[in-house]
Amino acid sequence: MNVRIGRWGMTPVVQNLMTANAAVWIVTWLAIRTENQVMANVLDSMMLFPAESPLFRVWQPLTYMFMHGGWEHIIFNMFTLWMFGRFIEMDMGSRRFFIYYMVCGVGAGVIQMLVCWLTGAPLNVPTVGASGAIYGLLLAFGMLHPNDIIMPLIPPIPMKAKWAVLMFCAVELFLGIRGSIFSPDNVAHFAHLGGALFGWMLLWWWLRRRKIYRYS
Fold this sequence. Notes:
By secondary structure, the protein is mainly α. The chain has one domain: Rhomboid-like (Rhomboid-like fold), CATH 1.20.1540.10. It has 8 helices and 2 strands, in the order ααααααββαα. It has helices at residues 12-34, 37-44, 60-63, 71-92, 94-119, 131-144, 161-181, 189-208; strands at 149-150, 159-160. A two-stranded antiparallel sheet has the order 1-2. Strand 1 (149-150) and strand 2 form a beta hairpin. The protein is globular and about 50 Å long.
């Protein structure tokens, strides 16, 4: 795919997504610092609440993925977006990559709302973050470059991408089940898995129709 590469290996959609996430985080920080109620109300309406909550709005499965709970949250997600997203954008092309990213993020939100409904989660607890879309990117890298060697942060052991992605998803499944039954940890593990699930379905469809290809 013919994708323009900018500074630091940045591709267009990855750069725009990082800029949008950073802008929303800065606005969130300013709203907290200045105690601006109007800004706070707008930002609250962008978070994803359970579908049965009176705070739920139809646009939230789209907007929640541009919000983050703290600087550690956004730095980790944006680093992963930069690290893997630029390669996937080059594989898919910018337009298809943007569609893929958004489908993964919205799909993660849908799965999160479903899990909240099934588990009777509190109606006033929102979900924020791009992690569902990020897990979709990890899934895409594992499917399109299955034999590429990557070094996860935990554990710091070189392994093929396909095994690393399977490990990440298995850990998320374990933590999600443990959190639902035993001790909640305030992390939307099933949203992460939802992003990977929707990513897998879309990739399977594109691969079957030869819209994209595996590279290793």
